[in-house]
Description:
Layout: H1 3-33, H2 46-54, E1 62-63, H3 71-81, H4 85-88, H5 97-105, E2 110-116, E3 128-138, E4 143-155, E5 162-176, E6 182-183, H6 189-205
Parallel strand pairs: 1-2
Antiparallel strand pairs: 2-3, 3-4, 4-5, 5-6
Amino acid sequence: MNRSQRQLLFLSVVILVALFLVRREYAEFVRKSGGNTPAEAPAIPAERAAAQEEHPASMGVAREIETSLNAEDQAILVHAKQISASTLDSKLPATAVGDWIDHAAGSSATVKWEITNCGPENAEGDGAVPRCALSTVQFPDNTQFQALILLGHKESQPGSPVQYSDPTLLWASYQRGNSALTPAALSALEKIARKARTASASSSSMK
């Protein structure tokens, strides 16, 4: 078995474990909640919202505007970005994960957030559907970093609110060009970003 095959096998195991955690986390939350009123997504502090409106790239990071999100997903996204990074990775500080990812990615990266069902096997249907936030960081050298965060679940009935649970990092990985996906810790983003910037600088100097 060569190195690429070993990487693919390892990644397959990681994905299977992540899918198992998705099912277990939201099933456990449904059992414990017993129909309790869901927590509301925290509002953006007024001063921060005003600063973002006036300077949308104030941290120097290009952000893709999620204009296609409906009002509910926008609220879920606000909740996701304000999760403490330290709850997802013990090596990270107790700061909003959205801000930390922007800072770690650096000024040359593009950061995009999406709200997902945590995987294609969790398509809308009867019963509770998990809700996740997917953060994608794209670097100029064609390196891509992604992290999937489990936020809670939502009943399939129209108008049902999101039931938030303790956030869980299901997986994070990165890929350089056409190379194999490599599992990584969320805190590894800083190192990955430094390598991507170095590669971009080297490529520019050779032109």
